User: What shape does this take?
Amino acid sequence: MGIGIKSMEYEDFGDNESLELLKKTGGNVFLSSIDSLLNWGRSNSIWPLTFATSCCGIEMMAAGASRHDFARFGIEVYRASPRQADVIVVAGTIVHKMVPVLKRLYDQMPDPKYVIAMGACAVSGGPFFYNSYSVVR
Assistant: This one.
């Protein structure tokens, strides 16, 4: 599948024949600036914030490695600031002392905001759930 660029003079766009030719051949015309195209791409990309606490944080780093290629899903860079993030990825055990910090990070994120729990520790408490008083249940 090749991509081609049609070269047409400005005067050729005045008649319907040229527009019909573009419609039949599958040519596309963008009437915009590069800045608005880049802003559209940035606004439709996923900007994740990491919240890694245990060994699940190491697994999150491995998931973001080049073998898995998160860029094809629109995830280019993990953000360090919650004000720049769309989704927070919680990886690891969450204890009671971390709850206010996690809540503050969630409150600082702009709308719409999403949360993904990654790993057994974040989803169900992992092996620390049953014999620990500090793990959030």
